Hints:
By secondary structure, the chain is of the alpha/beta class. It has a single domain, classed as 3-Layer(aba) Sandwich (Rossmann fold). Helices cover 28% and strands 28% of the residues. It is built from six helices and nine strands; from the N terminus they run ββαβαβαβαβαβββα. The strands form two sheets. The chain has a seven-stranded mixed sheet with strand order 5-4-3-6-7-9-8. It has a two-stranded antiparallel ribbon with strand order 1-2. Strand 3, helix 2 (86-93) and strand 4 (98-103) form a beta-alpha-beta unit.
Amino acid sequence: MTGPWTGTSSRGPGPPGTTGSDPPGAEAVVLAVRVLGGRARGRKLKTVPGLGTRPPLVRVRQALFDILQGVTPGVMWLDLFAGTGSYGIEALSRGAAGVVMVEQSPKAVAVIRHNLAVTGLGDRAVVICGDVLKEVPRLARKGKRFGIIGVAPPYFRGLGPRVLSLIDETGILDAGGRVYVQRHRTEELPERTRTLVLAREYRYGNTVLSFYVPAADGEDR
Length: 221
């Protein structure tokens, strides 16, 4: 199988990671977060306070898009626990055909919409304010399919495995698609699910990016 994985090590140097989605109810503030590459490179993004806005997120975001650089252009991307949209907006800036962002916090969703407006990328984005565990099945019932699914939940709530199970159940991942889960290094994820196999992991301090591929693809690696 040919895939987007770069380098030969499953671990990478870097500072501690983030909690994924920002905490509900957080007030919006402007911090020094910018789009890292592509059409909107250098544009400042508004974010909200909390662990998800600490500078290490920049290192992890850069690493993620270095890994996925070969498959991002033209892909449909699903950004779950989108926080303030930095991953989804980065994907759009780098040529994704479209991004659906799902985030439960209304304040964070308002910031996502602001960031899409200031970057000029809103024409290829759909923003859903809702519970990921409910919205994924809804998207599947509408016939939506995605080439990349990003899962960056708050840490220590057991959400990563639950979302992987939903991806199994709904068939929302395109054939040959990719799933990444951002997790704390002490959290556990399965090596296999019914339809997915863990292909590679990269560690950056306390943050781990775990990449899954369809099981048939993983067996060909």
